[in-house]
Structures are given as structure tokens and as C-alpha cells.
Amino acid sequence: MTAKTHLYAILEKAEEGDLLSRTVDLFIITLIVLNVTMVILETVEGINETYGKFIELFEVICVLIFTVEYLLRIWCCTADKKFARPLMGRLAFMLTPLALIDLIAIFPYYVFLLVTIPPDYTLPLRLLRLFRLLKVGRYSHSMQMFGRVIWQKRHELYIVAFALTLLLVIVSSLMYFVEHHAQPEAFSSIPTTMWWGIVTLTTVGYGDVFPITSLGKFLGAIIAVLGVGMFALPAGILSSGFVEAMQESHRENKCPHCGKDISTHG
């Protein structure tokens, strides 16, 4: 086994019983969790004033480690047959979702280092660091399954999203025409009324905007009931997807001849 292949196995394919690979995985996961915790805590004024220097130092250390990890992954990815071509293979690897997440994880730091950022764009770039939490998906079977389920059910989810968008436009338009004259400020336009539509369809009901006419209240009640059913659809689709994924996983872990669990055997 070459050094590149061995490194790829450590970084990408944690085999059962591979202590070194498991240790590296655990180290990276711990670093991710601690780093995201620091990103969250630095928004607390008192903590940032007291421990700001330490948080900045920890950020630099994390970015350096994540950068080295990212570069090593790019270097050794050609050990995988899918990315065997030196140039195009590495480019293909860099465009994979997990590699893009790795890039986003370090991107804000180098932007701040190399470019003067206007104050209005500073906060959004800093918040991009929270995407580092998605790096855990590389090591989490549950998160990988979640991603697969969403991908497998994407067509059904597209249909539901289209139906919900269509329903939102219709109910917002109806409520605008019903309530606009009674509440010209609250229901000033159809786009403005869409806020009420979203809050009502999701049954959140903040109460900041609500109909006051009899027809508006009647229409609002119907829309709220519709929202309960419509927004239950994505949950049902994802639930069925998880059931199918779990059943498939169980089938893969069973011997096709005797039916015994083979997941713990070599």
C-alpha cells in the first residue's frame, strides 16, 4: 500500500478496527464541535470581550488544521478509482458536496485575511463558519442517510414544494383582496400578505397580522386547516423514505442465504 493510498484510507474510509483512522475521525469531529461552539460563543459580548484573543487563536489553529486536511484529501483522492486522473480526478473530487463543504469551512478566514470586507458583509461571512458543522456528515452514518433520503425523495419533495408555493400565492392573493381595504397597512400588497400566508399555513400564528373582517376570518380558518394537511406531506414523504432506507440497510446487513446479521463480521 502506497503512502497516498494509506492516507486516503485514513481520511476517507475508516475501516472497522482501524484505530488510527478512528482516532483521526474523532479528532476532527471534536475540533469541528469545539470550533462551532466558539463561533457561537463569540457572539456573546461578555465572552468575546474576555476570551476574544483565545477564540481568535483557536480559530487560526482550526483553520490551519482544516486547510491541511482539505489539501491532503485533494492530494490523495486519486487513490480512489473514481478520481484516478491526476487533474480531472482532483477537480471532480473538489466539486463533490463534502469537498465543497470542506472548502466553505475555511473560505471565510482567507477572505478576511486577503481582502478588506465592508462591514455590512462581515457578519454573513462569519456565519459561514457554522457550515463547518456539516463536515460532521462525513463521519456520521445518520447524516449520510438523511442526505440520501432527501435525494431519493427529491422528486416528491419538488412536487410538494410546488404545490405549497401555489397554495401560498393563491391564499395570499385572496386574503389581500379581502382584507386590503380594511387593513391597508397590514395587507398592503400580495407579497406583504405572503408573510401572513406563511405564518398561517405553517400554523405558527405569530399574531402580528391577522384578518378582522368576517370573510377574512372565515377564509383564514379554512387556510389554517389546509396548512395542517399540506405541511404534513413533506414529513410523511421523509418518514417513508427513512423507513425504506432502514429496511434496505437491514437487508444489506443480512446474509441472503441464512438471514444472519453479517454487519459485525469481516
CATH architecture call of the largest domain: Up-down Bundle
Helical residues, percent: over 70%
Which radius of gyration do the C-alpha atoms yield? 25 Å
User: Would you give the CATH topology of the largest domain?
Assistant: Four Helix Bundle (Hemerythrin (Met), subunit A)
Shape: extended
CA-to-CA gap between the ends?
Answer: 20 Å
Class from helix and strand fractions: mainly alpha
Query: What portion of the residues fall into strands of 2 or more residues?
Result: under 5%
The strand count comes to 0
The CATH class of the largest domain turns out to be Mainly Alpha
Largest sheet: none
Count of separate structural domains: 2
Count of helices?
11
Describe the fold and architecture:
This protein is mainly α and 266 residues long. The chain folds into two domains: 3-139, Four Helix Bundle (Hemerythrin (Met), subunit A) (Up-down Bundle), CATH 1.20.120; 140-266, Orthogonal Bundle (Helix Hairpins), CATH 1.10.287. The chain has eleven helices and no strands. The two termini are 20 Å apart.
Brief summary of the model shown:
It is built from eleven helices and no strands.
Q: What is this structure's SSE topology?
A:
Blueprint: H1 3-12, H2 19-41, H3 45-76, H4 88-94, H5 97-114, H6 119-127, H7 141-152, H8 154-179, H9 190-201, H10 214-230, H11 232-252
Helix pairs in contact: 1-3, 2-3, 3-5, 7-11, 8-9, 8-10
